[in-house]
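Here is an idea for our session: we take a single protein and study its fold together. Start from the sequence, derive the backbone structure tokens from it, and show both lines together. Once you have written the record down, we can walk along the chain together:
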Amino acid sequence: MAGTKEIKTHIESVRETQKITNAMYLIASTKLRRARQDLDNTRPYFEALRGEIKRIFRTVDDVESHYFYPIGHDTPLEGTYGCLVITADKGLAGSYNQNAIRQAQQLLEQHPDTKLFVVGEYGRRYFAQRNIPIEHTFLYTAQNPTMARAREISTFLLDGYDRGELKQIFVIYTDMEKNMCFQARSTRLLPFHRTHFAASGKEEAAVSTPFEFLPDVRRVLNNMMPSYISGFIYSALIDSFCCEQNARMSAMDSANQNAEGLLETLSLQYNRVRQAAITQEITEVSAGARAQRQRKDR
């Protein structure tokens, strides 16, 4: 059985660890709040851009673009796929990383001819340890998602798509739902389906006069799509970053609760051992005093 010194050392160790988990919880909550604010500040622009793309399809419904499936065609395309997998740079975030990697593995099983583009050191190490080829890794993006990094990623992916090297592009990210729960999603980024920009009845009534496009509607649409794709990737990066911080907060909160339970158990054990030691000392003193009296009486 451990002595009081060993138990006291264990208690101090748990308390030091608890300080670290508390600090990580506070840091994650601060990063989560800032990331959501950054997303809220940029979302209106890309919502407006999506609205303008909807206007184009409501005005000219037969426009062709290589960013969209041809009219009446929505079957999967043959050829090499590209997959952007967004993970974290480190662990200690519950099942956050594993959920995204599981989605990527399912896509690889369904379509082996898929090139991986990985965001996050965790995903890079995971695929490298299992000898799964990685086409490109975007460093430092997971811990610092910015619009500039999103444009860098979209430019890299669009370059392969425009050259015909990638027939379809998927984005695997983690989406935060309204009740602060998160879920890994695999979304086809390119080519878009026209229903993705379908307008509601209220939006249909808002346009009553035709638009004039210069030089032509196809070039206008193709000029807008790269910006919209950059916004989509930026939103995916921010959503994933928010989910990572939320998952880390939950993990650190669970660690704090476990530490509290462990401290309670160790404190009880410490008090019992100390009480047993005190009782033993009292017993020894009493036995010694009794022996001295008996010796004196003789």
